[in-house]
Amino acid sequence: MNGPVNIIYSGDETHLPAVAMEEVNLSLHGANRFLERDIPLEAVEGVRHLLPLLNEKPLK
Prior knowledge:
- About 40% of the residues lie in helices and about 10% in strands.
- It is mainly α.
- The chain has a two-stranded antiparallel ribbon with strand order 1-2.
């Protein structure tokens, strides 16, 4: 299983920030790391916005 994994919160959504309401696509490795650690969902959202910039001009 090498494709993206969808993590969707199915509990009480009234106490979640807006960013948690969106579906986040992660690799299997990323999903495991997300579940193992207490990573703020805002950080995951930030990475999603930074990826296009890193892909356009990769760091050397």
